[in-house]
Amino acid sequence: MFLWGLFAAAFKSREDHRKQIELEEARKAGLAPAELDEDGKEINPHIPQYMSSAPWYLNAEKPSLKHQRNWKSDPNYTKSWYDRGAKIFQAEKYRKGACQNCGAMTHTAKACMDRPRKIGAKYTNKNIAPDEKIESFELDYDGKRDRWNGYDPSTYHRVVDLYEAKEDARKKYLKEQQIKKLEEKNNNQEGDDAATSDGDEEDDDDLKVDEAKVDESRQMDFAKVEKRVRTTGGGSTGTVRNLRIREDTAKYLLNLDINSAHYDPKTRSMREDPLPDADPDDKFYLGDNQYRNSGQALEFKQMNIHSWEAFDKGQDMHMQAAPSQAELLYKNFKVAKDKLKTQTKDTIMEKYGNASTEDEIPMELLLGQSERQVEYDRAGRIIKGQEVILPKSKYEEDVLTNNHTSVWGSWWKDHQWGYRCCQQTIRNSYCTGSAGIEAAEASLDLMKANIARKEACEESPKKVEEKRMAAWGSDVPEDLELNEEALANALKKEDERKREEKDERKRKYNVKYTNDVTPEEMEAYRMKRVHHEDPMKDFL
Questions:
Q1: Long-range contacts of range 59-68, CB-CB < 8 Å, 24 or more positions apart?
Q2: In terms of DSSP bridges, do strands 237-241 and 224-228 run parallel, antiparallel, or are they unpaired?
Q3: Adjacent-strand bridge partners of 412
Q4: Measured at the alpha carbon of residue 15, what is the angle toward residues 13 and 20, in degrees to the nearest 5?
Q5: How far is Cα 533 from Cα 434, in angstroms, rounded to an integer?
């Protein structure tokens, strides 16, 4: 079924095309009425209308040139622009979803262009901003690329007013200068009037614009080339002067080797030298880098660097915004720098002297000649005539610091290194000389005297005779002295304790224990306790 539909459509298109050809032949022969175009005009049949036959896929009822245009164009396209600053509604209270800062419904607080309020309109309900008019429309092809779309021509009167104000100021200044010169002329003496009259007329002529010179300058601009500057399909236009003499060979034709200096056709620059091996005297072009690194270009580069560094250090200076100020500050900087260099040089020469201003160097030292005889062996070693040069160390030698007259390590005492000049053992100490040595010796003697006096004043500690006591769990000392009465009482108490252990009924209700054990009680316990290792314990 689908194939049958395709076959019917192809057959119908062939029949329509055949009928269209027959109709055109009949019109050429005058047998059919003439065809009218879209504007209602008669199409000349003698002119071949190749474009009048529309393709079959347009399904056009009559031949037209519709397929030659953008027949899919949307009639809704417009070239209108946004209504700037238009407002549509002024609310009196805050509405939900509006901007929290100003109260307008057409944007959020993040995109609000009003001044941030201390307390937003959401909380104050005051000074609610009106809603902006938001438009959305589609631009056609020309409207998207129209550079002046949305431009208000009435704003150009500001530019006109500015130029008129400048012209009025210029005329006013010229008039004041003329009046000033006339006053000076009247104040001069009568004898000088005749001599200076010619000069004043020349000055007055200089103040006026010489139209003849202007015409001459315009005529001299015949070599000026008008072209677009830095534009890609649209941008600012300007004037570019072609400074190259037409008789000179173009820089890209000097060397046709592919591996030679690169030529950029967009900027018309060739940085490297196209003929590096040629004679410099015969070359008229050495590459753009040669011009950048020589002459005033190098000075201009240094001035740029100075302005950048000065701006980074906080100075209000900009090479492009105020070039005259930057150039003046750079000149002052160079003068101050030269003055500082001269002052430093004079200070050094004043301190160390200037060998160039002293007596001339002897000819022997100047030419490196002397009367000393030096003998060498076959290997080139010196045998006689010159002192043996000791090899130098990679470390610094004979460096005296902190007013010392000897190096560190020239003194040794009590397993410590020091300086021999002041006998100090501190590395970064300041030299005190012989006075420091005497002071150190005096302090050492004083310290020794104080130690001796302290040892003499201290008495030897007396030996305290301690009475050795028998403690719980310790052996009985041999020099133990016991009180016989206290021992008898302790034996009685021990017997009572033994009886209470045997018969619990005799134990009192309130029992008082004490941790203080006397030697007598300890001896009574030893005497009454059962000695299990004693073989005669059963006969006691």
A1: 62/35, 63/20, 63/35, 64/37, 64/38, 65/37, 65/38
A2: antiparallel
A3: 417
A4: 95
A5: 84
> Taking CA 194 as the corner, what is the angle to CA 193 and CA 200, rounded to the nearest 5 degrees?
70
Diameter of the chain measured on Cα atoms: 176
CA–CA dist 120, 112 (Å, integer): 12
Instruction: Please name the amino acid found at residue 57.
Output: Y
**Which residue's structure tokens are 């009259």?**
197
DSSP per position, 260-305? S---BTTTTB--S-S-TTS-TTT-S---HHHHHTSTHHHHHHHHHH
The span from the CA of 232 to the CA of 364, in Å, is 75
Give the separation between CA 86 and CA 78, rounded to whole angstroms: 19
Q: Beta partners for 416?
A: 413
Which residue(s) pair with 238 in the sheet?
Answer: 227
Separation of alpha carbons 74 and 80, rounded Å:
15
Give the separation between CA 472 and CA 476, rounded to whole angstroms.
Answer: 10
Q: Is 252 exposed, middle or buried (0-12, 13-18, 19+ CB in 10 A)?
A: middle
> Considering only CA atoms, which of 84, 24, 22 is closest in space to residue 52?
24
Burial class (CB in 10 A: 0-12, 13-18, 19+), 423: middle
Residues whose CB falls within 8 Å of the CB of residue 139, separated by 6 or more in sequence, listed in order? 77, 78, 79, 149
Classify 238 as helix, strand or coil.
strand
Q: Any residues with CB less than 8 A from the CB of 79 and at least 6 apart, and which?
A: 139, 140, 142, 143, 146, 149
**Assigned token pair, 454:** 């302290």
Q: Are the CB atoms for 289 and 272 separated by under 8 Å? A: yes
**To 5 degrees, how large is the angle CA 471–CA 473–CA 474?**
60
The per-residue pLDDT string of the chain (540 residues; one tens digit each, 9 = 90 and over) reads 555 555 555 555 667 767 777 767 666 665 545 555 444 445 554 444 444 556 666 666 665 665 555 555 666 666 677 888 899 999 999 999 999 999 999 999 999 999 999 999 999 999 999 999 988 877 878 878 888 888 888 889 999 999 999 999 999 999 999 999 988 888 886 656 555 555 555 555 554 444 444 444 444 444 455 555 555 554 545 555 555 566 778 888 888 888 889 999 898 889 899 988 888 888 888 888 888 888 888 888 899 999 999 999 988 888 889 999 999 999 999 999 999 999 999 999 888 887 776 667 766 666 666 677 888 888 888 788 766 566 667 777 888 888 899 998 898 988 899 999 998 888 888 898 888 899 888 988 999 999 988 888 876 555 544 444 555 555 666 667 788 888 888 888 888 888 777 776 666 666 666 667 888 888 888 888 777 777 777 776
* Residue 261 CB coordination number (10 Å): 19
Q: How many CA atoms lie within 13 A of 107 on its CB side?
A: 14
- Tell me phi and psi for residue 18, to 5 degrees: -65, -40
**Per-residue CA distances from 72 to 6, 58, 60, 78 (Å):** 25, 12, 14, 15
